[in-house]
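Section 5: illustrative case.
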């Protein structure tokens, strides 16, 4: 290990030395020695050992077998996390100090510690603000100045404050920081999600599934499209659920989580566009270029933005998404309609109709629903000469119209009988005929036609076919 670090130091010292040479020469140009501090007598490890707030850091250096290296000639710059900083990291990772310092975690510990070390002496006045700084570990971080304060942003986008600077040692300098900074690729997928703010609901969901948990902590390379807490909040609002209610359905949660994961490591540049991408859940989604970014279309035709990419882990990569992806067949009909944006008027209508309508759409009996879009309802309002408020206030009319769109049993597109009356829950009938370009057209009892624009949107209790006009039964 000592030889490995020395090789890193030789490879990195020249670029860093060139960056900081001008400031170093300026510091050497004065003949006034009256205010010089005494020359240090202890090396970096010895200096840190004399500071009680660095006891965890010193124990980590010992466990990683880096004492001899950091006691060597250097020079080095160490960004030294306090005991509180290590305690915060342990809490985030769900580890004890003994577990982190265990020999089995030595590769992880070494990667983290060497990420805090530069292979040159860099005093506070020489720290380059806004420029990637390469560490002995090989990763980079940046430092930003805000007045007299300096803040580090690590490779995972986390920030740490530099709280004290220029503690000299015989072989370099120590700067104190209030957070353990982390490189990419050192932690596994689950650990990486733990230390990045904004994934608490995702982590709670992962905790309900041993299958998903094992995958995210295992060795098989995996790509995860990780929804933020806000993404989960929006989903729960659409479903009318609390987090506890969602987590109380572990089978559903597992299917949703597996739909966010791909087998293998797929970096941003490798994501196939405009083609079905198979997930660990068994369903698929597609990705398209959206300006300079990428946008996912899930199995329910919902569009989700990929807001950050290529967050590396030891066993794969994370891409961040701004909505929860949903496979088909996991939500009931009412829930499925609840998460598709183009059905907001339909959802309001179901809520205003007789309770039996919502009971049927959330029940276990298989149903087929011909679901009108928002535009279809807007056209109906024009046709009837009423406002949406007036329509939603007419419970009897809504109940009649909505049940006219529902058929008992699950009838997939290939099973729809053509040119034959189909009886609905309302007891009226509709007929379906073949249209142009392999399309299907419904004719209602008023001889009005509606196109079926999307078929076979599966739900846990049936199937939805999307139509572009509200059907009307005979008076």
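Designed sequence:
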């Amino acid at each position: 290990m000592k030889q490995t670090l020395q090789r890193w130091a030789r490879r990195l010292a020249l670029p860093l030395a060139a960056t900081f040479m001008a400031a170093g020469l300026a510091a050497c140009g004065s003949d006034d020695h009256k205010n010089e501090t005494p020359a240090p007598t202890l090396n970096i490890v010895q200096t840190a050992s004399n500071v009680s707030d660095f006891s965890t850091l010193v124990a980590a250096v010992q466990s990683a077998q880096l004492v001899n290296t950091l006691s060597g000639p250097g020079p080095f710059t160490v960004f030294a996390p306090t005991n509180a900083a290590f305690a915060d990291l342990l809490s985030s990772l769900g580890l004890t100090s003994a577990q982190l310092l265990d020999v089995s975690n030595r590769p992880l510990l070494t990667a983290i510690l060497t990420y805090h070390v530069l292979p040159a002496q860099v005093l506070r006045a020489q720290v380059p603000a806004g420029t990637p700084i390469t560490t002995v570990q090989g990763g980079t971080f940046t430092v930003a100045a805000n007045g007299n304060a300096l803040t580090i942003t690590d490779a995972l986008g986390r920030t740490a404050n530099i709280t004290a600077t220029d503690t000299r040692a015989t072989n370099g300098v120590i700067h104190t920081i209030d957070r353990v900074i982390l490189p990419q690729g050192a932690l596994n997928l689950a650990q990486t999600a733990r230390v990045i703010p904004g994934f608490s609901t995702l982590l709670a969901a992962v905790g309900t599934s041993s299958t998903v948990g094992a995958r995210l902590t295992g060795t098989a390379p995996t790509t995860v499209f990780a929804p933020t807490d806000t993404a989960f909040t929006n989903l729960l609002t659409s479903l009318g659920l609390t987090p506890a209610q969602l987590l109380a359905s572990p089978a559903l949660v597992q299917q949703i989580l597996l739909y966010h994961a791909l087998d293998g490591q797929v970096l941003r540049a490798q994501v196939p566009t405009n083609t079905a991408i198979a997930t660990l859940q068994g369903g698929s989604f597609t990705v398209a270029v959206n300006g300079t970014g990428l946008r996912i279309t899930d199995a329910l035709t919902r569009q989700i933005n990929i807001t950050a990419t290529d967050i590396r882990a030891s066993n794969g990569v994370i891409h961040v998404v701004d909505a929860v992806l949903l496979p088909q067949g996991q939500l009931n009909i009412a829930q499925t309609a609840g998460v598709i944006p183009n059905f907001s008027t339909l959802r309001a209508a179901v809520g205003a109709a007789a309770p039996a309508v919502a009971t049927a759409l959330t029940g276990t009996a298989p149903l087929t629903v011909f679901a009108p879009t928002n535009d279809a309802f807007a056209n109906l309002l024009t046709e009837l000469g009423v406002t949406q408020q007036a329509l939603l206030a007419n419970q009897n009319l809504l109940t009649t119209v909505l049940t006219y769109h529902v058929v008992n049993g699950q009838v997939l597109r290939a099973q729809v009988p053509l040119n034959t009356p189909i009886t609905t829950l309302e007891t009226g009938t509709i007929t379906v005929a073949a249209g142009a370009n392999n399309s299907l057209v419904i004719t209602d009892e008023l001889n009005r036609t509606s196109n079926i624009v999307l078929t076979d949107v599966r739900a846990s209790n049936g199937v939805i076919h999307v139509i572009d006009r509200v059907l009307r039964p005979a008076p």
